[in-house]
Design brief:
Elements (H helix, E strand, L loop, with lengths): L2 H20 L14 H5 L2 E9 L5 E2 L7 E4 L4 E8 L2 E13 L2 E7 L4 E11 L3 E5 L3 E6 L2
Antiparallel strand pairs: 1-2, 1-3, 1-9, 3-4, 4-5, 5-6, 6-7, 7-8, 8-9
């Protein structure tokens, strides 16, 4: 390989990485991912911990058995345990923009839609934030 060809390849790689770094979709990364967002989201997520936005206090024990399951078809199940009871929320999820996730489910007396900003999304980590809390999920 000649030196000018090597320089061209190096230049293209530098341009590619600088563009992908500046265009990172999520605040906390990753910088580059070959998997589409829906493929990374579509799995079973367990709560690692939750940070209360007002106090900054990190909680984990209260959320030990909580599981959020997202499928590629756009439906979800959120299994939570509260007062020693299992509660399941079922509904639809959607990406409303490049880093916003919505959950719509039925509740008494009507339907509820919750919006979260995706801070980080890898195959093993999902960090969501709303006005009240930041939720850190992990997948095995």
């Amino acid at each position: 390989m000649t030196f000018p060809k090597l320089l061209k390849i190096l230049f293209v790689l530098i341009c590619f990485f600088s563009i992908s770094i500046s265009c990172s979709k999520f605040e906390e990364g990753p910088v580059i991912s070959l998997l589409p967002v829906k493929n990374r989201l579509s799995r079973e997520w367990k709560v690692e911990y939750v940070i209360n936005s007002a106090s900054g206090i990190r909680h984990s024990a209260d959320y030990e058995s909580w599981i959020l399951s997202l499928d590629k078809g756009g439906t979800f199940t959120n299994k939570i345990f509260y007062n020693q009871q299992e509660i399941n929320y079922n509904g639809k999820w959607d990406l409303t923009s490049k880093n916003r996730l919505s959950f719509e489910y039925n509740s008494t007396p009507g339907s509820i839609t919750e919006y979260y900003t995706i801070l980080r999304l890898t195959k093993k980590e999902l960090w969501l934030k709303d006005e009240v809390q930041e939720i850190h999920y992990y997948s095995e």
